[in-house]
Design brief:
By secondary structure, this protein is an alpha/beta fold. It is built from eleven helices and eleven strands. The structure holds adenosine-5'-triphosphate.
Amino acid sequence: MIKEIKKIALLTSGGDASGMNASIRAITRYAKYKSLEVVGFYEGFKGLIANNYVMLDQASVGGIIDRGGTILYSARSEEFKTEPGMQKAIQNLKNIGVDGLIVIGGDGSFRGAHDLHIRGVQVVGIPGTIDNDIAGTDYSIGFDTALNVIIDLVSKIRDTAFSHDRLFVIEVMGRSSGIIAINAGVACAADYILIPEVEVDLVKIATKIKNHRQGKRHTLIIVAEGAAKASDVAASIKLLVGHEVRVSVLGHIQRGGSPSAMDRLLSAEFSKKAVDLLIKGESDCMTAIQGKKIVSVPFEYVINNKKEIDRELYKLAHVLS
Ligand code: ATP
């Protein structure tokens, strides 16, 4: 027998991603359509432990679909990783009468969500991280917006690089994954892409640049932050090529901005799926998009697998450059 759900809670956790607000809105509005009560916890698992929450309704999530960040704020919580911390969180959910929880975040957040499930909490996840490094889903919320922000910024750099015959090293986010760098590299027509998954051979790149630059008025190298420091790459290339090299670290600006059409649509579809999963009594899983289908993937799979980079796309980027 499936337990009837009357009240659900949601929270945003880990790094903020554009589209989290669109998800908060869609979860709340769809849950209300299904006659459920909705509780929003502030600051992710930290707020769950502190019992810091707000009741959400149709009106309270109005006017946020186009806003980046998250109105429920996000935080990292070490306390949540401890047994007493987790027990406090579970007790708070019980005290408020929450039947099911939706966690919007990255794979770290889903490790926490899986731990809650093991301790009897009904919980599902929505992938929300600009890194798009979550196994089991083609896309996570925030990735497309971040990519569009990067395209806009790199286009501006390209203008000045072209005008002044410059070599630019541009650092993008991606501590342990080159997924953003590869996609940005293809979309921005970068000449070289450095990612953590592939060993960096700067001598080879410098030789290519020397040959390649004849007749070219700009060279763009995109570096994922986990592959190397842009300033180190620039210093080495300058030494090897003998040409002035400029550095641009895009930083947190990549996280901000109004969500793209794709992230808004994904937020709507993931949110509906997450609420439906809770109503059906499902737990311990994440909403995902595979091809054009919205599906669910067990947390067990998500947290035990690393999303691979698209090596064909990586190769293609260099063929086209
Ligand atoms: P992003 O990819 O954007 O950084 P994330 O969800 O992976 O998002 P994390 O900082 O890894 O971000 O995790 C968010 C929170 O999830 C942590 O602060 C912690 O409270 C919880 N968490 C992470 N790993 C675990 C774990 N192994 N066990 C329990 N809780 C965890």
